[in-house]
Amino acid sequence: MSREGKAALLINPGEPAVIETITIDSPGPNEVLIKIVASGVCHTDLTVKNLNGNGMPFPIVLGHEGAGYVEEVGPGVTNLKVGDPVVIAYRAPCETCPACLRGDPRHCYAALRAQPRIRRKLDGAQCSQVLRCGTFSEYTVVHQKAAIKMPSEMPLDKACLIACGVITGVGAAFNTSPVYSGSRVAVIGCGGVGLSVIQGARLQHASQIIAIDVNPVKLEWAKNFGATHTVNSKLVDPLQEVRRITEDGWDGGVDFAFEATGIPACTELAIKLLSYGGTATTIGFPAASDSVNLNLGDMATGVYWNKASLHVCHCGDTLPSHDFPLLADLYLKKQLKLDDMVTKHIQLADVESAFHEMETGNVIRSVIEF
Ligand SMILES: NC(=O)c1ccc[n+]([C@@H]2O[C@H](COP(=O)([O-])OP(=O)(O)OC[C@H]3O[C@@H](n4cnc5c(N)ncnc54)[C@H](O)[C@@H]3O)[C@@H](O)[C@H]2O)c1
Ligand SMILES: [Zn+2]
Ligand SMILES: [Zn+2]
Description:
Layout: E1 3-10, E2 18-24, E3 31-40, H1 43-50, E4 60-61, E5 66-73, E6 85-88, H2 98-101, E7 118-120, E8 128-129, E9 139-143, E10 147-149, H3 156-176, E11 184-188, H4 192-203, E12 208-213, H5 216-225, E13 229-232, H6 238-245, E14 254-259, H7 264-272, E15 274-282, E16 309-312, H8 320-332, E17 342-346, H9 351-360, E18 365-369
């Protein structure tokens, strides 16, 4: 049986998202059809739009931070039943790549995906789904292992944030570059992802968590999530300021610096903020032409003399079947703050204004409610 629903689609490069009717086919083998209840608006959706689809064929169903209920299961689905509350994972390990085969699914090269089941009603065009999800939609179809069951007491308008922003940030500090207790941490960019890194560093008992942003409101909010210090990099030199805050008789610097802006210069800054042997982690989504300049030889901040490492974080190196229930549990135990991350509840039709606000306004996450 196919269904109809509304979705926010990109139809042509360079054009705003529009709300249109889509038709969704029944799930195939090992697939589940989800009725979306809530979806966070992540900067990556905006980036996909700004990069003209980033290689995905049009039309494109936006959204990848979604939660909902299982509405129909395909043949062979054993782990879920109709009515289960789920969060959709965009990186469920593929089980066939070299990393999965060597038993390291956190470093999976790919991800499980459903067959294309969504079409634009108007002309029958097959739709792409951002990051295999497509959650700015009343319905979507995903691989059964990409739908992670939530505890029944977990509110889905908060649970949806776990799907991307929260697992990316918390996972960066748990998995990609495990922050150790007592360490010094800097986080550049305090949006949904950066604030989640701050939360991850707090949960790992970092001793100093320095939030860096150009927006004073974000810096004020960062304290609520665990920042011990804030630096407005528009007003002061963040390099000098971080070294001052972390001064330890060895020229200071942080053990871990995380970039969560998508701006190459912020990755360069992350590397310069490190103390000897520290680790920088780049999280922001780059354009194809983006590059960074890594100085090797500067005695104070060069990668060679400072023995710096650079990690790349994809979705917090998550193993969703393990991590999503863990984060839900931390929320239910009041250790992970999700309520304060939802700045606004919006309607599907407000997607474009949510993008605009993300670029210009004081918003952590807008959450679309269906
Ligand atoms: N690697 C991944 O798996 C992954 C997952 C989710 C998001 N992302 C990417 O991470 C980035 C952050 O996403 P988000 O949803 O938190 O975005 P966001 O727009 O909510 O937050 C970005 C923050 O960066 C701040 N900022 C802008 N310019 C700055 C500068 N020069 N110095 C310091 N701070 C600056 C903004 O004020 C804002 O607070 C985006 O590039 C997004 O596409 C990557
Ligand atoms: Zn794999
Ligand atoms: Zn995202």
